[in-house]
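Fig. S4 source data, part A: sequence.
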Amino acid sequence: QVQLVESGGGLVQAGGSLRLSCAASRRTFSMHAMGWFRQAPGKERELIAAINWSGGTTYYADSVKGRFTISRDNAKNTVYLQMNSVKPEDTAVYYCAAAKYPNNVAVVTTTEYGYWGQGTQVTVSS
């Protein structure tokens, strides 16, 4: 069974940085687009960043553009989310996800993602 395991969450002060990692259990996921989602209390889960399998195409939600960076290391089956200049409104549970099928686009449609990690909590203090 495929597993996605996030790590790197925690408590950080506003203006600080944090790097999340997502390790996939199967090498074949190097051919899938990957995304980072987040869900704050009382809000819907939202896609904040996506990357195609080769790493050459990315997508960012306006709320994180210029502050967060998504990247991947296919040799390590790992996707990263570098979070800089964090704000209290970035507080949420962060999830990584893999697209259902191999492709080379940065998938931006939530229903196209079929594999999910368990989530990691990020809390930004003011």
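Fig. S4 source data, part B ends here. The first strand starts at residue 4 and ends at 7.
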